[in-house]
Amino acid sequence: MSSQDRPVSSFKDKMKSSLPYTLAVAIIGFVSLWVRTLPSDTVFLSNGFVKFTSNDAWYHIRTLNVLLENYPHRMFFNPMTNYPYGSYIHFGPLFDQMMAISSLVLGLGNPSAALVNTVGAYFPAVLGALTVIPVYYIGKYLGGHKAGILAAILIAFAPGQFLARSIIGFTDHHVAESLFSTFFIMFFMLALISAKKKGLRFEDVFNKRFNVVKEPLLYSIMAGVMYSAYQLSWPGASLFELIVLAYAILQYILDNFRNESSDYLGFTGIITFLVSTILILPFVHPDMGFSLYYYSWFHVVTALGAMAGFAALSFIEREFKRKQIKAYYYPLVIFGICVLGLLAAKVVSPSLYTLIINTPNTVFGIQTGGPSTIGEVASMFYSGNTFTLSKAFSNFTATGFFASLFGMFILAANMFRKPRPQEVLVLVWSVFIFLAIYGQNRFAYYYSINVSVLSAYVGSLLLDKVKWNELDEKFKSTVKSPADIPSLFKSVKVEQVIAVLAIVIFLIYPVYGYAMQQAVGSNDPNGPWLEASMWLRSNTPDPGMDYNAVYEAPKNGELFKYPDAAYGVMSWWDYGHWIEVIGHRMPNANPFQAGIGGRRGSINEENQPGAATFFTAQSEAEASSVLEAIDPAPDKAGSRYIMSDARMATEIFGAMPAWTLDTEGYTQPYWTGSGYQNLPSTRYYNSMESRLHILDGNGLKQYRMVYETEAYQTQEVGYKQVYNFIFNGNLPEVDTGYIKIFEYVKGAKITGTASSNETVKISATILTGQGRTFNYSQSTTSDSEGRYQFTVPYSTDGPIAGQTQFDTAPSGPYVLSYGSTTKEVRISEEAVLKGEEIKV
């Protein structure tokens, strides 16, 4: 054999030896995709409607459609949410662009709406399945092929948030975060391994030794590309920049104590973040200043800072070696430089300094006040003030969770021997993500990857103990065809069988079982919200906005100029995207936590107008003043419609006062015969949310119900029972419309005269589109001259063209009574909308 033949032969042998693992990973990937598409019937409904899951998925479909409508221009500012201010879009552009390009290619440049929806629905499942690839390689370079295969199996079935956010229909960027951040770690690890193996020094770069530099350079470039892809999927990607810098500092210190060169590390870091700096620059919005949530100069500065950090750490290490300074001074110098860097940032850019200082608490700290009520940002380990592991077990399984802790312990112990760079990297990465789930359980979809890798690493150590490698080598040397396999079984030892069974029973089977239980789709949004949002779209006036247009962001200090026909829809922030995307109307509050109002830091702050202040308002006048204050125009209210569902009035009501920091008094202990029980109090029933949903808006002057959906069994009946029991009410103790839509109107003014100081009453029987009736009534006392006035929100003559096409209205005229006098009063829709006076 010639020397020229050897590399080819070696390459062929390498490909042949890796083929079984490649096939195994491919099979695992397809199984992972199958798991994620199991609930397809909950997404693709029989009537042709595609029901995306949760909140942000709908918003991505909106940004995707706007992108395709205006390709290649994307929406950066959206005036159709957070009315009347609009919202800057902090979502990264890459996720939408990948879906758009896929749609354009599959649709031959003109994709149909059905194709776009199909691509959008399947996209998270595909990205979730692809995650097995980087997880396999990380596992492989940590614990060998067996660890890689086991890690791929574990992530394929990983339950909890990773599965939920990568399942069909959950068209959100979170799975892209997981995929690209893991690819970033994989390529960064491969670059470190390759550079260290080749003994790369900076002199090799200066002297153009491409045989040494080429492979680490390619891996480092790919690491930079993947970090940029991660960053363009989520602006908060600086979390992994922090992780890599923390790893680098630790690795430099370890190398320095061992008198080893860290040039391999410096080269990898400098190239990685040089590439990421170049790739992020075109997406920076200079007017965003230093912002973690939008693509701003913060992302460029931190990438350049990371690159400079690697260069500085390498320079200092070389100076230490050249001057033979003792190794234990090295971490002290690094600490001093970090302190000086922070002080310099404080002087040069206080906003950047504040952002850097506050970011760790934002990511790793436990949230308080209103943010603590956001499901995904609550701590993984606390429910209220109670420590719990239940959420960890449901996301990772009990064995997986404890195996990950054990894996980190082993990697930490290895540092006191001779750790490999990949081991230190995985340890630091895992510790930081563990701290992240302590602060916010949303990072569970990150930690699932760490759990898979660490559990597989622990499993591989178990297999090493039973000499699995001997069996593996025997398989390669003796099995040439399927007929040779039976003879291999004779070599299998009992302890090897037990080890494999232990891995299957304690690691694989639990994640498989949880995955099968959880891969059932979602009912979010539920039928009533789909129905109510589509009713809103068809039966309310056009707000005068081009839904698929790309609008320019207003200049600094200015407000977006809305058409006169524009109006907002008030509801709790959870439902804002559905109102916008399904209903084509403009919510005041949205799941970006915009438009909530309330307070953030202290009860002494002014209670800002928004959803929280409106729904907790203790009177109609207070609530209306909130609506009027939302819109800066003095003659216009910030909302025309209010949407309430049964959850807002019952199970999630507590989140509303939490955002105002004024949470006391909404419940009161009552003796129930067997003990005290906290029941809704007067303050709760006085709240605008209760007045609207529990009391049907009875007695309100400017709020009328215009639509309700079908009733479902909820906690509403219990709240009515408490009201009747404590306040001697007579509410029918039945469930009513799950969602109720109210309209804020000027109200018709009914005036008349009676005897002085006479009690005057007005009432009407309201008939809803569901066939339900309820009583609407008001009472007042005439003045000393016998004059009285009512403001009523319902018209008796039905809807008019161009206005709300309501199906909930009085079944007959109002009945006005005082003393022995009874009169019928009819009110036109124009009188209600214009606030006209009706003399009786």
UniProtKB/TrEMBL annotation:
Pfam families: AglB_core-like, AglB_L1, STT3. Residues 747-838 form the Archaeal glycosylation protein B peripheral domain. The keyword Manganese applies. Residues 29-463 form the Oligosaccharyl transferase STT3 N-terminal domain. It is a multi-pass membrane protein. Keywords: Glycosyltransferase, Magnesium, Manganese, Membrane, Metal-binding, Transferase, Transmembrane, Transmembrane helix. Residues 529-649 form the AglB-like core domain. It catalyses: an archaeal dolichyl phosphooligosaccharide + [protein]-L-asparagine = an archaeal dolichyl phosphate + a glycoprotein with the oligosaccharide chain attached by N-beta-D-glycosyl linkage to a protein L-asparagine. Its cofactor is Mg(2+); Mn(2+). One of its GO terms (molecular function) is transferase activity. Pathway: Protein modification; protein glycosylation. Its main location: membrane. The chain crosses the membrane at residues 21-39, 114-137, 149-168, 174-195, 239-257, 264-284, 296-316, 328-348, 392-412, 424-439, 445-463, 497-515. It is found in: Cell membrane. InterPro entries: AglB-like_core (IPR054479), AglB_P1 (IPR041154), Oligo_trans_STT3 (IPR003674), OlisacTrfase_arch (IPR026410), STT3_N (IPR048307). Its EC number is 2.4.99.21. Belongs to the STT3 family. This is dolichyl-phosphooligosaccharide-protein glycotransferase.
